[in-house]
Design goal:
This protein is 80% helix and 0% strand. It is built from five helices and no strands. The protein is globular and about 60 Å long.
Length: 128
Amino acid sequence: MVTILRPLSTSELLVRTFHLYRNHFVLFVGIAAIPQLAVLAVQLGFVERVIRTPYLGRWGSTLVILAVNFLALEIAHAATTIAVSNLNIDRPARIGSSYWEVKGSMLRVIWIDLLHSFSLSSSLFQLC
């Protein structure tokens, strides 16, 4: 699916995107599901603690779950980007190889998204 670089209309871009995701559905579901297994494990680990502690004592476990969820989301986004890139240049894309290629740049991806999140939240805070 190597294509000539040219401006695409919105409809062409959506058609190509849906075609790519539809033809490689298992790949993208696998990339999205694997990091969420870590989130599920952390959430199940905190279930007993959340049940036993009073409402105000739940903040620690909530922050841990949010941090693990953030990391899982960033890992999945980076691996999805690698998979889409490989598919667009006609290289084979597999779940494991997508995660393997992301390994070297994961800290940079997390740092960029943290900066983006903080800048967005601070600008929204200034609007209020």
